[in-house]
Amino acid sequence: MDSGAISKLRSCLNLNNDFYIKRDDLFPTSFGGNKARKAKLFFEEIDKTNVDAIITYGSSSSNHCRVIANMSAMRGLPCYIISPIENYKSTFNSKMIELFGSKIIQCPVSDVKETIDNKILELKNKSYNPYFIQGGGHGNIGTKAYIDAYEEIKKYESIEGIKFDYIFHASGTGTTQAGLICGKILNNDIKKIIGISIARKNPYGGQVVLDSVNSYLEYLKKDKVDIGKVNFIDDYVLEGYGCYNKEILDKIKKFLIEDGIYLDTTYTGKAFWGMYEYIKKNKIKGKNILFIHTGGTPLFFDDLEVLINE
Ligand SMILES: *Cc1c(COP(=O)(O)O)cnc(C)c1O
């Protein structure tokens, strides 16, 4: 199967809808996922410049930081990762970041901005030309990555002669969702794009998505849109980032066994469960529903022990 390919799911979740999945987890660099898709575009920009050091930000389980560390190492660029000290734990992603030779700088979450600014200044004083990539690959370049993904979805629709009524996915920094919404606006589509928040609550979470959408529309010199264009659902965040429950574990197990596809408790498993609950709650029936697998493969292995013991 091609990376990012779409296929129909065997499991119907007993919800009387047709389910499809887009496998962005198979994006071909550094264990894939939406962060690899975004990072590819960031590095296309970076490769055109004389940047000689990379700085970014993320937690110890961040897929974004793993991908950026890997892509920096591929180019022989030093990479600095600012990481909040709160809840820092060793994960497969953090181990890979070490393997790639990135320098992890831990600081309290309240000092993140200052720590980033200081690192940039320090590198400049040493005659480096550093490039800062926002946490999660946030920004217009990240948004563009999911406009491209939206075009792939359109292509699938036209080849297969179907239309998706809904797209569901895990929403974090909101960049993925912003790209999908921009893609929808640019195509004059009516499908519903439902971002299942994995951490943030409204109104903040939805507002960040909207700001990203409008930032991109502004760049295209198009009219801004309002919050009515954003479906950022915060009903399934539980106690916050990384928190999960027994139903999420059950969904992950069942999906792996029935469809052979792995999900994790922080992002995709949580969103998959949220999608299930949302469809039930809103009595959605007889629709074509696309779930975007946004990646996070290493996190599945972090979760394996709890899955077994569950
Ligand atoms: C970061 C991440 C998300 C959220 O993407 P955003 O663009 O930050 O909203 C979803 N799934 C996985 C696996 C991620 O790593």
Per-chain topology:
Layout: E1 6-8, E2 18-23, H1 34-46, E3 53-57, H2 63-74, E4 79-84, H3 92-99, E5 103-107, H4 112-125, E6 130-133, H5 140-160, E7 166-171, H6 175-186, E8 192-197, H7 204-219, E9 231-233, H8 246-259, H9 268-281, E10 288-293, H10 297-309
Parallel strand pairs: 2-10, 3-4, 3-6, 4-5, 7-8, 7-10, 8-9
Antiparallel strand pairs: 1-2
Helix pairs in contact: 1-2, 1-5, 2-3, 5-6, 6-7, 8-9
Pyridoxal-5'-phosphate binds next to α1, β7 and α6.
Task: Give a verbal description of the structure.
The chain is of the alpha/beta class. The mean pLDDT is 96. It has a six-stranded mixed beta sheet, with helices on both faces. The protein has a four-stranded parallel beta sheet with strand order 5-4-3-6, with helices on both faces. It has helices at residues 34-46, 63-74, 92-99, 112-125, 140-160, 175-186, 204-219, 246-259, 268-281, 297-309; strands at 6-8, 18-23, 53-57, 79-84, 103-107, 130-133, 166-171, 192-197, 231-233, 288-293. Residues 33-35, 63, 136, 170-177, 267-268, 294-296 line the site of pyridoxal-5'-phosphate.
Oligomeric description of these chains: single chain
Number of helices: 10
Largest sheet: 6 strands, mixed
The unique ligands bound to this protein are: pyridoxal-5'-phosphate
Core attributes:
310 residues, Rossmann fold, 2 domains, six-stranded mixed sheet, binds pyridoxal-5'-phosphate, TrpB-like_PALP
Short structural summary:
This protein is α/β, with parallel strands linked by helices.
